[in-house]
Protein: ABC transporter permease
Amino acid sequence: MSTDLIPLLWDATLQTLQMVLVAGAMATLFGVPLGVVLHLSKKGQLLENRLLHRSLGLVVNIGRSVPFIILLVAIIPFTRMIVGTSIGTIAAIVPLTIGAIPFIARLIEAALIEVPVGLIEAAQAMGADKKQTIIKILLPEALPGIVNSITITLVTLVSYSAMAGAVGGGGLGDVGIRYGYYRFEPDVMIATIVVLLILVQLFQSLGDAVVRRIDHR
Structure:
């Protein structure tokens, strides 16, 4: 690998981090509340609403069933409407966010299911209303699982961002395709994969460290 590709890999890494962190933050902002509502609205939960649960569940399932590479192309008009272009790092954040929201929502729903029912019943027995039970019992108890869900989402977004590079999204995927594949330079491809693996390990290690710090069970 020639030395002039080192700055290119560095810039591509920064672009990938930008895509992953911004899309991860946006997906968390919308996906976590969606996952909470999915859990609370199901049968037997605090805010039971079967119609709402089925409707949201259908939307989430549809979102999760669309392969990301197809989603990238399918929402190009929407991406152009939001950011004014369908090419580049900023444009890639739009499909990354949309693809990650239903993903993290289901993970959050699963994390909330792990909270022992006895804790909820005990809080209600002591006079806590639904709002207090959700804010002071359910969410704090599920916090390690929520953080783990966000970590998994960030790791998944790293691979999604690489796919975005295949259609002009920039980042490490773009470098791997343009310089490694099209120019038949396997060392560039290997370097790209190594950097992606490092990013995945970094996000996973940081997430695990936070979970260990807040999990007092």
Summary: Residues 5-40 form the longest helix (36 residues). The two ends are 49 Å apart (CA to CA). The chain has one domain: 5-214.
